[in-house]
Structures are given as structure tokens and as C-alpha cells.
Write a structure and sequence with these properties.
Number of domains: 2
Strand content: 15-25%
CATH topology of the largest domain: Rossmann fold
Strand order of the largest sheet: 8-7-9-10-11-12
Structural class: alpha/beta
Order of helices and strands: EEEEEEEHEHEHEHEHHEE
Helix content: 10-25%
Mean pLDDT: 92
Shape: globular
CATH class of the largest domain: Alpha Beta
Length: about 260
């Protein structure tokens, strides 16, 4: 079986637990990117099997995230505005499609993780979002040692620096919701930096849509209605092991008459 760039594959050695796209082939090593999970990997051809199903990305749960009401009656609805900054264009596009289906206005920007902190302030000033997502790719390098050392992560330090800029822009956790992190990120450092929600409490991989699921729920919950934190986290792929955060209120205003 010939494998080429762009093919969807799974790994035999990992019991086919994750669907990947082949992004590059070099010296008989196949470089992979998770289709649904924010994960990079590599493998040899002997460890790969082609995945033949249609390329899709779906919410990791029966999608009970609220949507903007189709029958608006005499009321009008103003969901929270989302600024989604992502280091990966494929995941960003899928998240933007998810917001569109939910009827939420979202601005998406693809910026490499190391440059987010340098560019986030002008975007916050221009778009004035209610929610900002800072995500992309990350990893904890076990071989480097201490799990609490932020230097042992691929991009957590970059995310922390961006969160600090955003929180300096708006000090109130109620006025600007910050959702930060990616696969295996240092959750505690992101929360301490000022994030409302972050990954990953158990240093595991997260679904590509997990930050978007949290943002959409907040954006479509009525203003000043407290979010059930445990129920919200349970909507994500791995629940509180993959994502965590602090209690907060919804961000959508409801008005009358339309």
C-alpha cells in the first residue's frame, strides 16, 4: 500500500486510537498531524494503515451546546463575540465553521504560537471581543524532566505570555474570558497567568474543538446566568482531565422588541 502526503492514517502500535493526516514524508519517516486531536507525531510506513472514511471533524460528544434560536419571536439575541487565535489553520477553519453553525460571530486569526503574544494586543483593541481563545499545538516533553517546569513544554510559555498580555488589557475575568492552551499544556501556569479556562489538568491531548465548545456555550448563555462548570467541562472530549477553569457567567444579551 502506497501512502502519500494528505492521506488519512492510523497507527498500529497505538491500536488505531487517533486519525492522522500525513503532512510530510522524509527519509522514510511519515510526519503526521491529528485530524481531530491537536497532536503531531511521526511513524514508519510499517506502523501505518490508511483510513478511508470521509475527512470530517465532529464534536466529541452528542452536541448539546446551545445554538442561536432560529425562531426569534419578538426578542433579539446578542451572543458574546469571539476572537479565536490559533497556530494551526486547519483546526482554526474547523472551529470557525462550528461557530457559524451555532450562529455566533467569531473572528479567526492564524498566528504561530511564538508570535501570538506580540500580535494579540492590537487585535484586542480592534475587535474588542468578549472571549479570546489562544491555542494551537503544545506538548510536554517527559524526557526533559519536571512536569511543573514550564521550559519542558513546547508552547506553554508562549501561551502564558499571550495570556498575560490579554489579562493586562482587561483585568476583569468577567469582562474578558480567556481560553488558552492545547495538547498537554501546563494548566496551572495558564490559570495563574490569567486564563479563565485552560488545558490540560492531566497533561493529555485535547480535541480540536474543545476550546470552541467552551467558548460557544459561554457566548450563547444568557448574560449573568452562572455556567454549571462541571457540566460545561463534561461537554469536552476528556472532561476535567483535558480542560479546566473557573466559574463564570454567560455573555449573551437578550432584548425586546426585535
Amino acid at each position: 500500500m502506497e501512502l502519500k502526503r494528505g492521506d488519512l492514517v492510523t497507527r498500529i502500535s497505538y491500536n488505531h486510537d487517533t486519525i492522522f493526516k500525513i503532512t510530510n514524508i522524509k527519509n522514510d519517516i511519515y510526519y503526521l498531524k491529528g485530524l481531530e486531536v491537536r497532536l503531531f507525531a511521526d511513524a514508519t510506513a510499517s506502523d501505518l494503515i490508511k483510513y478511508v472514511e470521509k475527512e470530517t471533524i465532529e464534536p466529541p460528544f452528542p452536541d448539546d451546546t446551545p445554538s442561536l434560536p432560529l425562531e426569534r419571536s419578538d426578542y433579539f439575541y446578542l451572543p458574546g463575540k469571539i476572537l479565536h487565535i490559533d497556530g494551526d489553520k486547519d483546526y482554526l477553519d474547523k472551529c470557525l465553521e462550528y461557530y457559524k453553525k451555532k450562529g455566533i460571530y467569531a473572528i479567526g486569526k492564524r498566528i504561530t504560537e511564538e508570535h501570538i503574544y506580540e500580535t494579540i494586543l492590537p487585535m484586542l483593541n480592534e475587535y474588542k471581543p468578549d472571549i479570546v481563545i489562544i491555542t494551537g499545538h503544545d506538548a510536554y516533553y517527559k524526557k526533559k524532566g519536571d512536569i511543573n517546569n514550564i521550559k519542558n513544554y513546547r508552547n506553554t510559555l508562549n501561551f502564558v505570555k499571550a495570556v498575560k498580555v490579554a489579562r493586562k488589557y482587561e483585568k476583569s475575568h468577567d469582562k474578558l474570558i480567556i481560553i488558552a492552551g492545547a495538547c498537554q499544556s501546563n494548566y496551572e501556569e495558564l490559570i495563574k497567568a490569567g486564563a479563565n479556562f485552560a488545558s490540560s489538568p492531566k497533561r493529555i491531548n485535547i480535541h480540536a474543538l474543545d476550546p470552541a465548545i467552551i467558548a460557544a456555550t459561554l457566548a450563547l448563555t444568557e448574560h449573568n446566568k452562572e455556567i454549571n462548570l462541571l457540566e460545561l467541562l463534561d461537554k469536552t472530549k476528556y472532561g476535567h482531565e483535558g480542560m479546566g477553569g473557573i466559574k463564570c457567567n454567560g455573555l449573551m444579551y437578550v432584548g425586546y422588541p426585535r
